[in-house]
Fold Large ribosomal subunit protein bL21.
Amino acid sequence: MVYAIVRAGGHQEKVSVGDIITVNRMKAEAGDTIELPVVLHVDGETVTHAADALAKITVSAEVVDELRGPKIVIQKYKNKTGYKKRQGHRQDLTRLKITGIK
């Protein structure tokens, strides 16, 4: 089995060809092809983690679409003071399809 650990959107993701992953928003339009930096590469029994060898490996992905994550509600409350605060947040996300590991 061939897979790679890539750095995408501030996190590390385990990917193989054909996987669809959701990462934090990237500056790319739907249909664009992007290259992801590789942290670790596994090809059957061979594990590659040396920086000079990883520089030769490329993981290409196609941007499928952009979406927003679930709403997160942040509530703060202090007893006996009358202080309460409510805030919401929705993270901007990008969905990627892995097209190749070379």
Q: What stands out?
A: Helices lie at 51-54.
